[in-house]
# Entry
Amino acid sequence: MVAPGMSSIGSGRKSLMRLACCALALVALSSCGDSGPESSGGPATVRRLTQEQYGTIIADIFGSDIKVQGRFDPEVREEGLLAIGTSHVSVTPASLEQYDSLARSIAAQVVDEKHRDLLVGCHPAAKTAPDDACAKQFLGEVGRQLYRRPLTERELAAQVKVADDATKTLGDFYTGLETSLAIMLESPRFLFREETVESDPDHAGALRLNAYSKASRLSFFLWNTAPDDDLLAAAANGELDSDRGRARQVDRMLASPRLKAGVRAFFTDMLGFDLLGGVAKDPEIYPKFTPTLAGEAQEQTLRTITDHLLTQKGDYRDLFTTRRTFLSPLLASIYRVPIQTKKGWEAYEFPDGDSHTGIVTEVSFLALHSHPGRSSSTLRGKAVREILLCQPVPTPPANVNFAIVQDTKNANFRTARDRLTAHRTQATCAGCHKIIDPIGLSLEHFDGLGALRDQENGATIDDSGQLDATQFAGAVGLGKTLHDAPQTPACLVNRLYAYAAGHTPTKGEGEWMKYLQDRFAADGYRVPDLMRRIATSEAFYKVSAPATTNTPTQADSGPGQTSAKEGKS
Amino acid sequence: MRFTRRTALRGILGGGAVSVALPFLDCFLNTNGTALAATGAQLPVRFGTWFWGCGLTPGRWIPTKVGTGYDMPPELKPLEAFRDRLSICSGFKANMDGKGAVPHYSGTMSILTGSAPKGQGMVDFPTFDTTIADTIGADTRFRSLELTATGNPRDSNSRRSSAVINAAEPSPAAFYARLFGPDFKDPNAADFKPDPRVMVRKSALSAIKEQRDALLAEVGASDRARLDQYFTSIRQLEQQLDIQLQKPAPLEACSVPSAPANTKTGTQIDDAITNHKLLAQLLAHALACNQTKVFNMVFADAGSSLRKAGSTVTHHQLTHEEPIDEKTGCQPEATFFVERIVEGLQTMLVTLDGVKEGDGTLLDHTLVFAHSECSFAKIHSLETIPMLIAGRAGGKIKTGMHIAGNGDPVTRVGLTVQQAMGVPLSNWGAGSMQTSKSVSELMI
# Structure
């Protein structure tokens, strides 16, 4: 299972370090090697690449002028994350057709006359005949990047044969190469991030990801793309199996500008921004709402987040109270504040005491969680519970009369609060609405687009709110309450871990999650520190006993055998 | 008169729903579209679903007379011309068996999978269109084609499991490219030469197929099912290539349309009508050219998001909010959408009926199963969900009847349709909806 040689070196070094740590701990109760409580690990996952990941990987390997045009199957959100959904989706015949045509179009561009000299890296002896050596060089190198591990001898031989056969039939070396590359681009080895398990030499009977699967989990977590050359090399030479080696790679990756893409991808998923593109507003009520505005609203929030967490190295909880954000001219017109720039983005700080405090008061959140023609305290309250506090709210019963809530013309119920209060008197509805509406009602000074208003239908808005036992006033109060609620950082820890690992934390990971939450607090709620703690830990790469009956065997480890994948028969 | 695509489009856009009986299909003919003489070969039987969300209005769509010669109820009036090829199934019910009803989801999946789903997105069985596709569709280029008029590829009911959902094509232009792009082999083309590039692609796929056993052995049971689906898709791709390598049998009714213009997609009703019509026309060509035998069309998504231009009040919202007019017994604004939906179904039937094939039309060789997800959308009622069976299925089903279900499970209709399409089943459904009692009045 384990590639001979490398793991024994790794484990030997590791045991020594462990001994040293224990000795120190005995003497000084040092936190050396503080790796937290035991974790069972979770399942190894098989995740389908997202459209964004696919595009980034192609650009990483072949450059951004290779066009990636096609539509992927819709993604599935599970347990709050698309990242978890990727562990459950498959490839239907229609979506394989899409992958097939995408693969052929990319492969054709890579070998066309414009790109071949730069991208193929070798020249065939004759353009009209097979050149297995050149094909092998190209396919082996590209294959390593696509499969996120070196190809086995057998795999590489099969790919070279595809190129060879196709060249013979069609009489053109580059068409042969194109055919073989297209096959790799639609191979399950590329489209699915299959994690491979090996026995953990440091813990008898325990399982962990093998080095290449570690590299992938790490890279998609921090950068939302496949491992780069350095990381693949670190997997090959055993660096990722040692605490120190892992730390070196993680620190390199955290220091890279690519971290921003990773953080943006996580918050795009967590905040449900995939749905923003589909939001429609009543043009008579909100004439300013356009797809452009929706895109800029998302960008505003992502800029606010990455600036606060990465540039300012801020406390995660302050994302709910910060008055500092970034505005485009279009957004500034919605927020009704002056900015200097006529084009592009500008940092802006709302004045002290302003209702715009934190990402919950930004258009992206307020417009997404509203109805097309009016605000919705219920949708906003539900979003706060589910997205920011990780508390799922049950779906409403099938037989509900919404007439009172939706009749905004009723003179007896002019504000949303009046209408919802009437609605909540129905016993079947009260159970959920009393835990969600009072949160959302504190945001009633923002209309269905996210713009401030003083009144609704001529009546004064009462923006008092409540979250569990805490009562507060308005958006400022909600921001402070979210900032202070212990569930807020706990939810972030759970979501971030689930996003990175591809599964909701299991029972056996409970202590480890608790530990991460404690450390997150001790680290001042710094998200990069939390990412580092997860990414450098052993627990992150640990795998619980698989459901499969297949036990790893030593069979078929020929030359070039680098992972457990090919070993099982 | 000679129809061009442009004039046809203008008609669609200008007049809302125009029902043109036959000639608009001709407007898609190109110079290759000359029909060949009949070969005498047996014509294939096709199957399709046609779905709309938010039901119909109680009291306005169920005929008073049961059996043949039923009276056409007000909301189904646009289907009058098809009365003798249309059966209306009323009074069938989706039982939840203690599983909570998920609004706009449980009804659909009960009808299509024979079992109440555990929750949103969680089905225990495949939808029966896939079973039918496996039975009759194995020898065509596409096992099935999924389409939606709503602009959203997620609006598809067809699934093999919770994880394997056949996404829908919303764009007529993209649908055209998929059907009649470079991979299309015209069955009526005078000369046929297998494309060596296709041969190369097909043999290259074996490099992927060879990995199957090793890959499946590496993963746990649930991942194995997902990866196996991937390999099933590979086999179907291979089959598509195979079909491209064989000279297709000439088909009298097959003609190649010209490419439709790009259209705006979305839930605005005029867009949905336009796109549905274009998709239906392309689909008719695809069926006549034997590119597929199975299709699934969504006109309005579950919990209909259809809306009028300049408004974001959806059909769905209206069904809940709008008071019922006591005189007519309907919600007038919501009924606007019901009328457009039934006209949409009319368009589909007219389109299929416009293709002459053998001694009848494409519709005579097709079974269209049209259904919604609830009966009275205001309260998401799962009793008497509208289900309609149109077409003659090549004589495999009796038509022109009103069937009263009297509270029987919806699975009786699903079982009947599957048996008519040749699926070897003696009983179907789960829990209290399991049944071996097909609707005998409809069976040949």
Summary: Residues 1-33, 547-569 of chain A have pLDDT under 50 and may be disordered. Chain A touches chain B through 68 residues (CB under 8 Å). Residues 372 and 491 of chain A are 29 Å apart (CA to CA). The two ends of chain A are 12 Å apart (CA to CA).
